[in-house]
Specification:
Blueprint: H1 3-24, H2 26-31, H3 40-58, H4 61-87, H5 98-121
Helix pairs in contact: 1-3, 1-5, 3-4, 4-5
Protein backbone atom coordinates (compact mmCIF):
# COMPACT_ATOMS: atom_id res chain seq x y z
CA UNK A 1 0.00 0.00 0.00
CA UNK A 2 1.51 3.37 -0.98
CA UNK A 3 1.66 6.45 1.25
CA UNK A 4 -1.22 8.28 -0.40
CA UNK A 5 -3.53 5.32 0.09
CA UNK A 6 -2.45 4.90 3.71
CA UNK A 7 -3.14 8.60 4.37
CA UNK A 8 -6.50 8.32 2.58
CA UNK A 9 -7.52 5.36 4.75
CA UNK A 10 -6.44 7.15 7.94
CA UNK A 11 -8.36 10.26 6.87
CA UNK A 12 -11.36 8.13 5.97
CA UNK A 13 -11.37 6.55 9.42
CA UNK A 14 -10.90 9.96 11.05
CA UNK A 15 -13.85 11.55 9.22
CA UNK A 16 -16.09 8.52 9.73
CA UNK A 17 -15.32 8.67 13.45
CA UNK A 18 -15.92 12.40 13.77
CA UNK A 19 -19.05 12.18 11.62
CA UNK A 20 -20.40 9.46 13.90
CA UNK A 21 -19.62 11.62 16.94
CA UNK A 22 -21.83 14.36 15.49
CA UNK A 23 -24.75 12.01 16.19
CA UNK A 24 -23.50 10.42 19.41
CA UNK A 25 -22.42 13.70 21.05
CA UNK A 26 -24.77 16.10 19.30
CA UNK A 27 -25.07 18.62 22.18
CA UNK A 28 -21.27 19.08 22.19
CA UNK A 29 -21.20 19.92 18.49
CA UNK A 30 -24.30 22.14 18.68
CA UNK A 31 -22.58 24.08 21.43
CA UNK A 32 -19.56 24.95 19.27
CA UNK A 33 -21.61 26.27 16.34
CA UNK A 34 -21.06 30.05 16.33
CA UNK A 35 -24.16 31.89 17.58
CA UNK A 36 -24.45 33.97 14.41
CA UNK A 37 -25.19 30.85 12.33
CA UNK A 38 -28.81 29.67 12.04
CA UNK A 39 -30.15 26.20 12.88
CA UNK A 40 -27.18 24.80 14.85
CA UNK A 41 -28.71 21.31 15.16
CA UNK A 42 -29.34 21.09 11.43
CA UNK A 43 -25.80 22.32 10.69
CA UNK A 44 -24.35 19.66 12.99
CA UNK A 45 -26.44 16.95 11.35
CA UNK A 46 -25.51 18.09 7.83
CA UNK A 47 -21.82 18.31 8.67
CA UNK A 48 -21.98 14.88 10.33
CA UNK A 49 -23.49 13.31 7.22
CA UNK A 50 -20.90 15.07 5.05
CA UNK A 51 -18.08 13.75 7.23
CA UNK A 52 -19.48 10.22 7.06
CA UNK A 53 -19.87 10.34 3.28
CA UNK A 54 -16.53 12.03 2.73
CA UNK A 55 -14.75 9.62 5.03
CA UNK A 56 -16.27 6.65 3.27
CA UNK A 57 -15.39 8.17 -0.09
CA UNK A 58 -11.74 8.48 0.91
CA UNK A 59 -11.56 4.71 1.35
CA UNK A 60 -12.13 3.93 -2.35
CA UNK A 61 -9.93 4.99 -5.24
CA UNK A 62 -12.91 5.61 -7.51
CA UNK A 63 -14.51 8.14 -5.14
CA UNK A 64 -11.45 9.55 -3.41
CA UNK A 65 -11.02 12.69 -5.54
CA UNK A 66 -14.70 13.67 -5.26
CA UNK A 67 -14.66 12.93 -1.51
CA UNK A 68 -11.54 15.07 -1.08
CA UNK A 69 -13.22 18.02 -2.79
CA UNK A 70 -16.24 17.66 -0.53
CA UNK A 71 -14.15 17.29 2.62
CA UNK A 72 -12.05 20.34 1.76
CA UNK A 73 -15.24 22.35 1.29
CA UNK A 74 -16.50 21.03 4.64
CA UNK A 75 -13.23 21.91 6.41
CA UNK A 76 -13.47 25.45 5.05
CA UNK A 77 -17.13 25.68 6.06
CA UNK A 78 -16.49 24.65 9.67
CA UNK A 79 -13.43 26.87 10.07
CA UNK A 80 -15.53 29.74 11.51
CA UNK A 81 -16.41 27.48 14.46
CA UNK A 82 -12.70 26.99 15.14
CA UNK A 83 -12.11 30.75 14.95
CA UNK A 84 -15.08 31.37 17.23
CA UNK A 85 -13.70 28.97 19.83
CA UNK A 86 -10.25 30.62 19.66
CA UNK A 87 -11.73 34.10 20.06
CA UNK A 88 -13.96 33.09 22.99
CA UNK A 89 -11.90 30.43 24.80
CA UNK A 90 -13.45 31.07 28.22
CA UNK A 91 -16.78 29.78 26.88
CA UNK A 92 -15.06 26.47 26.09
CA UNK A 93 -12.73 26.18 29.08
CA UNK A 94 -14.18 22.75 29.88
CA UNK A 95 -13.11 21.50 26.44
CA UNK A 96 -9.49 22.56 26.60
CA UNK A 97 -6.99 25.32 27.31
CA UNK A 98 -7.10 28.47 25.16
CA UNK A 99 -3.82 27.59 23.47
CA UNK A 100 -5.41 24.41 22.09
CA UNK A 101 -7.94 26.46 20.13
CA UNK A 102 -5.17 28.54 18.56
CA UNK A 103 -3.06 25.49 17.73
CA UNK A 104 -6.10 23.95 16.08
CA UNK A 105 -6.36 26.79 13.54
CA UNK A 106 -3.18 26.01 11.55
CA UNK A 107 -3.80 22.28 11.99
CA UNK A 108 -6.99 22.76 9.99
CA UNK A 109 -4.84 23.86 7.04
CA UNK A 110 -2.63 20.80 7.49
CA UNK A 111 -5.75 18.66 7.37
CA UNK A 112 -6.92 20.41 4.19
CA UNK A 113 -3.52 19.76 2.62
CA UNK A 114 -3.52 16.08 3.59
CA UNK A 115 -7.02 15.58 2.19
CA UNK A 116 -6.02 17.33 -1.04
CA UNK A 117 -2.75 15.37 -1.29
CA UNK A 118 -4.37 11.98 -0.69
CA UNK A 119 -7.35 12.80 -2.90
CA UNK A 120 -5.29 14.02 -5.82
CA UNK A 121 -3.35 10.79 -6.05
CA UNK A 122 -6.30 8.38 -6.20
CA UNK A 123 -3.92 5.54 -5.32
Amino acid sequence: MNRARIVAVILGAFFITTGTLHFLRTPFFVRIVPPYLPAPLLLVQISGVCELLGGAGMLFRQTRRFAAIGLIALLIAVFPANIHMALDPQAYADIGPPVAFYVRLPLQFVLVYLVWWAGARRA
